[in-house]
C-alpha cells in the first residue's frame, strides 16, 4: 500500500461531504469518496499537473570508505 497522509485524505473527505451536503456515511461512504478521488486523479486530472510526470530515477555513484557526502 502506498504511503498516504491520512490527515490530508480525511480533510479531502470532509471537504467533499461539506460541498455535496452529505455529512453521513450512510449517504455516501468514505470508500466511495476515495474511489471518486482516485478516478479523478487518474483519468480527469490534467496530465501536466500530475505528480507522475515528476518522477525520475536518481542515480549517483559513491566511493569506497567514504561515509558522508
Determine the mean pLDDT. Answer: 82
Let me know the number of strands: 0
Amount of helix: 40-55%
| Rg calc | 19 Å
Number of helices: 2
Structural class: mainly alpha
Distance separating the two termini: 32 Å
Shape: elongated
Q: Major sheet, described briefly?
A: none
What amount of the residues lies in strands? Answer: under 5%
**Low-confidence regions:** none
Order of helices and strands: HH
General description of the model:
With 69 residues, this protein is mainly α. The protein is built from two helices and no strands. It has helices spanning 6-20, 30-44. It is elongated and about 60 Å long. The model has no long low-confidence stretch (mean pLDDT 82).
Features:
69 residues, mainly alpha, 2 helices, 43% helix
Protein topology:
Blueprint: H1 6-20, H2 30-44
Amino acid at each position: 500500500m502506498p504511503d498516504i497522509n491520512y490527515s490530508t485524505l480525511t480533510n479531502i473527505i470532509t471537504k467533499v461531504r461539506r460541498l455535496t451536503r452529505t455529512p453521513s456515511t450512510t449517504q455516501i461512504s468514505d470508500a466511495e469518496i476515495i474511489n471518486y478521488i482516485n478516478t479523478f486523479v487518474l483519468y480527469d486530472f490534467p496530465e501536466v499537473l500530475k505528480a507522475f510526470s515528476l518522477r525520475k530515477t536518481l542515480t549517483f555513484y559513491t566511493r569506497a570508505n567514504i561515509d558522508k557526502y
